[in-house]
Structures are given as structure tokens and as C-alpha cells.
Amino acid sequence: MSILLAGLSLVIGTASCKSSEDGSKAGPSAAKTGLPDTPAAVVAEPPKVAKPDESGIAWIENDYAAALKLAQGEGKPLLIDMWADWCHTCLAMKKGTLRDLGLSAISADFVWLAIDTEHPSSAKVMELFVPKVWPTFFVVSPTDESVQAIHAGSAPVAEFREFLLRGASGHLQVLQADGALLPNSPLAHLRSGDRARMQDEYAEAAAHYAAAREAGGENWDRAATTVKNQIAALAKLENKLACAEFAGAEVDFMAEQHNSSGADFMYWVSDCAKALKRPAAEALLDKALKGMRAILKDSEAALSYDDRSDALATARSIANKLGFPDLAATLALQQRALLAKAVSEAATPMEEMTYAWHQVEVHEYLGKGHAILPWIEALEAKLPNEYDPPYRRGWLLLKLGRHEEAHAAVARALPLALGARRGRILGLDAAIYKAEGNTEKEREVRVAIVSHFESLAPGLSPKKRLLKAKAELAKMDAMPASQ
């Protein structure tokens, strides 16, 4: 048993009333989830493990069966990073938190698996561990393949360590003979909420998060994370009124959380406030804007460049909703300056690519899209095998009205893309044809989008995007011929 798990065993054994989770595995969300036709005990070759990085993490790439077997053999929990190379937050986590020396003390206590969610080999794993946002991290007990903890999005090192320890604690409980420990403990509810979210049971998830917050008490150290998860679950409900009311109750508390949880909460406030009537909605948005600006003003806040850029974009959106265009422009200028600093400090072109979307979006917002074109063109030249730079360049060229060049950028991006992302790039091509007024070519591409999504394996096929693509095609088919 590792030092970490031995220590957790002592903690759980002496303080189970405060920190134990429910060891029950009943219900579909906690059931064993072994890969169909891929027995974990049968691996043709030893897992391909990368050399340990700065934090001591040795990653296994896209091989769930091999990682699971290794975790079972060593008795360690399995950490799964569900990522994609189009995801700027994924890239920021990889070069930031996941390489931080702060993880070095516990990195050897986990088996680390990175799953590229766009790769065809990831289809089966995507059916088992379903990310709702990118990146999503899972801690899985290899004993029964049950999910013990989930973290969605970015996190500073301290928060990520807490997530890992929570997952390791759950794995230890699975290893214990008696298994069942305090089903009404805050961590048990937190874990149940995570599992319900993974199954799209958002009302159930929100109820578990609320119970976790209540059970944890006033000074619970996981309160902010739990509140962020609760509002994210409520925001997925068809009726967003409960989300807006919850946002109003928690906005002051979350404004004090100067980290990614606080910033993410304000994003969901912005989304849910529309459920309220105008005066109440504006009052809530005003609180969210002030809260976000307080978080951004704190130079010591646990936020990466990518987190800060996201937060500035959210604050800008809220300012526009409140009718403050001058403030929105100021926030955009701050974001542009921040990104320039981040790019100047990037050690590699791949690190630069972390900021590609934010760079082109904020410059276009400021009416300076032409000024960033040389940078995105140079990045494309540095990374000839990456689809993201030409894809972002194509979007910017569309906004600039340079349609022929935009089509050419899409043509360069498409052969480099896999999975659902290829559908997104085709969607950009359709948008370009729409801007040109070429209905025939637009429909041709939209047919290709539907066909592409339908051709993907179940774990890789995005159901909501497929439905949206079909709706857009049906809308075109319903148009009079003259249109």
C-alpha cells in the first residue's frame, strides 16, 4: 500500500464521522463499467508509459485497459484526464497544474491515463466516463471501476490535490472489507452528485450537492467547489429559475472565492439570470460583475492566464448585458494585454496554441482582427500538423469577410481533425457558404455534417450536436426554393 493510501487509512479509521463517503455501489451510476470485449486482465503489450514529467507523473496515452491493469496490479487509484487539443483549458492544465511540483509528493500514488477524446480508440472509454466539459478528470477505483471523484475544468494545484485525495479516499473505502461508511456524510453526497451529473441526472445531482453543503457545515473546505458544481447542475435544467434563485443566495459567498471556482460560478450566474424578470436579473448580474471584478483585481488569486482570460471574457459579456459597452471594451483591452503577456512567456508553439481562440476572439471583438492575423498565420506555420490554428484563422477570416481565404483555411484544418471536431470544422465551412449566400453548397456541407456525426462510434458521437445539425438541415429544406 502506498504512503498516501496508508495515511488515508489512518484518517478514515479515526475520523470517519467527518470525512467518510458512502461505500455503496448500488445503482447504475456506480456500477462496474468494464470495457465491453476488452477484459482488463488481458493486455497484449505492457502499457506505453511516458517519461515522468516535472511533477513525477508518467502518463499512459489512450490505453484504458493497460492503465486499468497496471492500477489493479499496484493497488492504486486511476486518474483519467479526458482532454482534446482544441481545448485551451486542457492545454493550460497540462502545462500548468499537471506539471506543478506541488503534485510531486503524491503523483506516484496514482496511475495516470490521458484520453484524447477525439481519437477513434477512445470511443469505448467515452461511453464509460462521459465528460460534460473539457477537460474532465475522473478518479476511478480499479477494484470495481467505480468513479470516486470528478473534477470538471481548470483547478489550481491546491484544489486539484484535494480532488485527488478525495478520489484516493473513496478508492480506499472500496478496498475495505465492510465497504459501507456513513452514506449521509458530505463527501458521500459530493461523490453521488458527481456520478449523477455524469449520467445527465442534473436535478438529482443538485440535490446531492445541496445535501453535501448542508452536511459539511459553515466552514467546510469543499464548500466553494460544491456550490460551483451545484449551480452547474441547476443550469442544465430546462427551468433555470431554481438556478437563478440559487445564484442570488450564493453570489456574495462565491465572490469571496478568488479562484477558478469563484470565476466559474459567475459564468453560470450570467447564464441563469435570464430566468428572472428584468430588475431582478439586472441586480443579480450587477452582483456577478462586481464579484468577478473583485476576483480579477486580486493579483494573488489562484488563476492561470487561461483562467483570467476566461474570467475577463465572462465579465465583458455581463457588462454588455447590463448596457455598459465602455466597460466591456476596457475589459477586452485588459484581456488582450494579458494574452500578449501569456504568449510572450509561452515556451513552445503548443503552449502558444493554448491562447489561440482567446486571441482571435478578443481582437475581433475590438475590431482589430486584421492585427492578429500575422500571429495566427505564424502559429499555423510552426504547427503544420495541428488543426486548431487554421480552424481559428478560418473563423477570423469569416468575420473579416474574406470568404475565399476562410474556405482555404478550413480545407487545411479538415484533414488534420478527428472525431466530433471534424464536424465543427465542417460547420464553419457551412457558415462561410451561408455568408456568401451559396445555399446549394451550404446544404451540401450540412448533409456532410449529419453524415459525419452519424458515422462516429457511440462514445464519440455528440448527441446534442447531431440533433442541432439535423435541425439546421431541416430548416434549410423547409425554405422556399427562392431562398
Describe this structure in words.
- The protein has 483 residues and is mainly α.
- The chain has a domain of 181 residues: Glutaredoxin (3-Layer(aba) Sandwich).
- 60% of the residues lie in helices and 6% in strands.
- It has 22 helices and five strands.
- A five-stranded mixed β-sheet has the order 1-3-2-4-5, sandwiched between helices.
- α4 links the parallel β2 and β3.
- α1 crosses α6, α7 runs antiparallel to α8 and α8 runs antiparallel to α9.
- The longest helix is centred in the C-terminal third of the chain and has 21 residues.
- About 9% of the residues have low confidence.
Per DSSP, what share of the residues sits in E-state strands of 2 or more residues? 5-15%
In order across it, which strands form the biggest sheet?
1-3-2-4-5
Which architecture of one domain does the CATH hierarchy give at level 2?
3-Layer(aba) Sandwich
Secondary-structure element sequence?
Answer: HHEHEHEHEEHHHHHHHHHHHHHHHHH
Class by SSE composition: mainly alpha
Overall average pLDDT: 87
Number of helices: 22
Sheet with most strands: 5 strands, mixed
Low-confidence blocks of residues: 5-44, 177-181
Instruction: Please name the fourth-level CATH homologous superfamily of one domain.
Output: Glutaredoxin
Q: How many angstroms does the end-to-end distance come to?
A: 69 Å
Using only C-alpha atoms, the radius of gyration works out to: 23 Å
The portion of residues assigned to helices is 55-70%
> What shape does the CA trace take?
globular
Oligomer: single chain
